[in-house]
Amino acid sequence: MRHALIMAGGAGTRLWPVSRKARPKQLIPFVGGKSLLEIAFSRMEGLIEPARRYVCAGEAHREIIVSSLEGLSKKQYLGEPVGRDTLSALAFSSAVITRADPEAIIAVFTADHIITPEEDFRDIIDTGCRIVEENPDTLLTFGITPDYPATGFGYLQLGEGYAHGSKVVDRFREKPDLESARSYLAAGSDHYLWNSGMFVWKAATFLDCVHRYEPGVYEGIMNIAEAWEKDDYSDVIKRVYPSLKKISVDYAVMEPASADSGVSVAALPMCLSWIDIGSWPAYGEILEKDEDGNVRSAEKQVLMDCRGSQIVSDEPGHLIAGIGLEDLIVVHTGNATLICRKDRAEDIKKLQAIVQEKLGNDYV
Q1: What is the DSSP annotation of 130-180?
Q2: How far apart are CA 34 and CA 31, in angstroms?
Q3: Pairing of strands 192-202, 113-116
Q4: pTM, entire model
Q5: What are the extents of the domains in the chain?
Q6: Which helix (H) or strand (E) holds 186?
Q7: What φ, ψ does residue 320 adopt, rounded to 5°?
């Protein structure tokens, strides 16, 4: 049976100071009054029924997420006591889902994408599920056609054709330098795609890969799954989960699997509009530009002789006024204001860490 898993545990530090630990980016009403998680959950309509949709995120956010998603029960919320990167989250979720459905096919999504048109998205996911149902030893990922030499995304290096329009993944390329990214773009989408971070696999196949490549993580996850819905579950997960190796699924499973003759790794192209809202410039892509290339998400703002800048405020009634700004990001919140050159947006994560080190948790 098909199931959907939405990963919503990201910290969103590159969207600081709006994104905070208590309310990370996926819970903020960024788009038309809806959060990215609400949009991701509703995107499953007509594809996978609510009873088979799961969300994996921090245990601390359980109540706010369950109450905000109509159709999500508490049993469908898979809470992590601490973040241990994507391998642990996916192995934990897969193990729990498999307990209820040993033949489960899981489609994995993240809660920080804007994808249109949604009808095309659902058709592509349906094709991906059929590929895995027909080839249960396959770990399938989805690739996005690059339209600029991005250095903030991983890339999929493609090989021969596989099934239903997919191709074998010869190699996973991590976030490249600019020269490499330009060469990938020049090679074309027949050879390189952006790694979307979305997957489809048979849960049992994925867990078998975890068992072979990361046996320590597998053992810990199986201990947690064995305690699922038992009286000691809370104690077990709090004790075991923080000890799991912190590593991404790409490094731990997808890369070794692409070189393993016992399993197939394939990529299905997604020919649609895909925006990963992982930074302020990415968020700016979904906002309307004025004649000078400025974008704004603030109730009150006045700009004079400004070009290519981004103005954001989450405080109603607060005025942001600018003169002569060029290619700047200005983000205002109740207790913190960020001013940053657009070309330094990737460094906001570092700045947030410095703020926490110097001023504690009040501003993060």
Answers
A1: HHHHH-TTEEEEEEE--SS--SSS-EEEEEEE-STT-EEEEEEE-S--HHH
A2: 5
A3: unpaired
A4: 0.92
A5: 2-276, 280-363
A6: helix 178-187
A7: -110, 120
Q: Are 263 and 257 in contact (CB under 8 A)?
A: yes
Q: Which helix (H) or strand (E) holds 121?
A: helix 118-134
Is-contact 14 282, C-beta < 8 A? no
Cα-atom radius of gyration of the chain, to the nearest Å?
21
> Which residues lie across from 31 on neighbouring strands?
34
> Tokens standing for 135?
């080839």
Neighbours of 319 (CB within 10 A): 12
Write out the chain's pLDDT in tens, 364 residues.
999 999 999 889 999 999 999 999 999 998 888 999 999 999 999 999 999 999 999 999 999 999 999 999 999 999 999 999 999 999 999 999 999 999 999 999 999 999 999 999 999 999 999 999 999 999 999 999 999 998 888 999 999 999 999 999 999 998 899 999 999 999 999 999 999 999 999 999 999 999 999 999 999 999 999 999 999 999 999 999 999 999 999 999 999 999 999 999 999 999 999 999 999 999 999 999 999 999 999 999 999 999 999 999 999 999 999 999 999 999 999 999 999 999 999 999 999 999 999 999 999 9
Please, what's the b/e burial string for 147-158 (b: 16 or more CB within 10 A of its CB; e: otherwise)?
Answer: eebbebbbbbbb
Question: Cα(66)–Cα(60) distance, rounded to whole angstroms?
Answer: 11
Find the length of the chain: 364
Quote the tokens at residue 141.
């990922």
Joined tokens for residue 8:
């919503």
Residue at 159: amino acid letter: G
Residue with the two structure tokens 């919503």: 8
Task: Specify the amino acid at residue 25.
Answer: K
The first and second tokens of residue 72, run together, are 């999500």
Domain 2-276: top CATH class: alpha beta
Is residue 126 within 8 A of residue 133, CB to CB? The reply is: no
Nearest of 2, 9, 14 to residue 277 by alpha carbon: 14
